Amino acid sequence: MSDTIINFRQARKKLARAEAERQAQENRIRFGQTKTEKQVRKAEEARRNRLHEAGRIEPDPDPNR
C-alpha cells in the first residue's frame, strides 16, 4: 500500500482547477487579440463615433424665431 494519504476532495478540486486553466489558456489563444488588433479596433470605433457625431443636427436654441 501507499504511504501517502490522499484527500479526494482536494484532489478533485486540484484537477478541476487544472482543467479550467487549460480551457482558459485555449480560449486566450483562440479568442484573444494582439495589441495591434486592439489598436486598430479602437481607432475604427473612434472614427465611427466621429462620423456619427458629425451627422448630428443640433436643435434650434430659439424655437420662437
Shape designation: elongated
The structural class is: mainly alpha
Helix content: 55-70%
Quaternary organisation = single chain
Tell me, rounded to a whole number, the average pLDDT. 91
The biggest sheet, with number of strands, parallel, antiparallel or mixed sense and barrel status, is: none
Q: How far from one another are the termini?
A: 97 Å
Number of helices: 2
Strand content: under 5%
Order of helices and strands: HH
Low-confidence stretches: none
Number of strands: 0
Task: Supply Rg.
Answer: 28 Å
Please summarize what this structure is.
The protein has 65 residues and is mostly helical. It contains two helices and no strands. The mean pLDDT is 91.
Describe what you observe in this structure:
The protein is mostly helical and 65 residues long. It is 68% helix and 0% strand. The protein is built from 2 helices and no strands. The longest helix has 24 residues, at 8-31. The N and C termini lie far apart (97 Å).
Supply the key terms.
65 residues, single chain
Write the layout of secondary structure elements.
Elements: H1 8-31, H2 35-54
